[in-house]
Amino acid sequence: MSSNAIIQGNVVRLTVVFTNEVEEPAEPSTVKCSIKQPNGIIETPTPLRDSLGAWHQDVLAVSPGRWEYRWSGTGVVVAAAESDFWVQNSDIV
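Given the sequence above, the corresponding structure tokens read:
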């Protein structure tokens, strides 16, 4: 695990900004955030809109290991992006 891993029990904010063909913020008709926990469980909570094209989803990092997530937009803006983050056990608790 990397030294910049998230400590178990923290909230991780996942963010995305959807853009159009000229890289200006644009709003998809539908926005989805899928989150895969280290144990393989996949959740699809309802993300929150911050501004035109900008969305976020807060995740409580309860399990150690690799978390993966995918943002997708459909309709007016069709786009997808995937990434991950690591959660480590606390060395103190």
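The two ends are 18 Å apart (CA to CA). Try to locate this feature in the token string yourself.
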